[in-house]
Amino acid sequence: MARAQEGPLLELSGAVYRYGAISALKGVDLHVNRGEAVCVIGPNGAGKTTLARLAGGLYRPAGGTIRVNGEPMPRQPHEAVARGIGSVLEGRHLFVEQTVQTNLELGCYHGNVPKAVVEERLEKVMDLFPVLRKRASQETSTMSGGEQQMVAVGRALMAEPEILILDEPSMGLSPKITGEVFDALEALRKGGLSILLIEQNAPLAFELADRGYLLRQGEVVVEGNIDELTEDEVVRSAYLGA
Amino acid sequence: MRIIDLLVSGLTLGAIYALVALGFHLVYRMTGVLDFAQGDKVIIGGLLGLTLVRQGLDTILLVALLVLIAGLLLGIAYDALVILPTQNNGHIATIAATVGIMLVFANGGHLIWGPDGKPFPPVHRGVLEIGEMRIGYQDLLIWVVVIGVAIGLALLLGRSRVGRGMVAAATDPLAAQAVGINVSRMRAIAFALAFGLAALAGVLVAPITLAGGTLGTALTLKGFTGAVLGGLASTRGVIVGAVLLGVIESELAAVIPNSYVDPIVLIALIIVLLVMPNGLFGLRRQRLA
Fold first, then answer.
1. Complex ipTM
2. Predicted structure pTM score
3. Most-buried pick from A56, A66, A205, B27 (CB within 10 A)?
4. Interchain CB distance below 8 Å, B180 and A109
5. Residue B168: its chain A contacts at CB < 8 A?
């Protein structure tokens, strides 16, 4: 378990990422404090998913630094989870042809967690998303998009992360199911979990977050608390329909 | 030759193909790669075993164990030197590299040990007689090993933590990394097991096929054919497909000239695949490059 330290829980400084000759991120500064929910909004192609994967330790930056609890992000992608990072990937990325329970159990693969503790964590996830209790033995590929998203969030929670990074969790979901997922996220936030939410749906993101960033063409163009963002002309015209 | 004797020799032939096919299956399921060096790994295993025998080691089971360990280590090196450097260029590049290594193994074996097959002692020379049926103990051993490997693979992939990690890494590498699975290590384990299995098979089949020689490419083709016939992504499928192939070949060879057997078998395979593209036991989803 990562040690709590002074300063941000997660901090990107001048983060750069390139796909060949194309710069996806051009020096992004972003941080998430302990217990804080932070959102990143922006149009398609802004670099949001790349940012989520850098912040989750799954990609290595071409420049800049990423620190978790004041320490450099591990070099190996699979080591990030041991540093308290839980990633919910865009498109859910479940282990298809595996049951809900197996997907959730794989969520605590990294720590060789004792069976009794795995059971406890399963109970917590199923309390958060009761529908998964009934679906435990069902293959995830046969479930609805909303239920799959719940499994994806639940799988990340099984590692008991300090920060949850969610990439477009509302994508493709009905408003009702989106509401259920975000109610669960709100409960987690109130429970002290730090959240970095990457989301195109700005009004939805602003309901959950304390602060936010607007990303465009790989750069942060606006940042501030939610009140400041909702007053910002660029954000208002492009994302809040004002 | 009586049908029952043909069946016994066909089952053994099929079991040999199955050992190669299981290697194809393991690597394919765990990495999505078709490894065409699989048959020549069997030949290398036989030749390593022969070297140990020539050094005076006459307990063949101990030879098999040492060759298995050598195969596991060679598999890790194979992953690091052949698979890892090519994987970022797509599966086609990796498959091409395995074809290249197939030639390196075949010709390297000829350079070091000579081009001809060499006699290799069996674990047991006796024959089991059940009524009028006569089964060599070496044949029985190969059957038992195939069944044991199949059960072992099923337990490994279905029940063990490492196996679950391997399946998860094969299904979705990015998601696997997100939950803390070391995808590179899982791939290395898959290649180590495949090489170890092939090397072990080399020691077991050498008393029947001779050690070394030019059989590697034929074993690759027959193992691959059997695996595709049964369903490359299904453990049960590759065994059934390979054994079926061995039995059919054996029975056909008794009634038609040998040179007609392979074309007939391969035409039958094409017909099966036209009707059942994923093979006899194909899974719903197969990973292809």
1. 0.92
2. 0.86
3. A56
4. yes
5. 95, 98, 106, 109
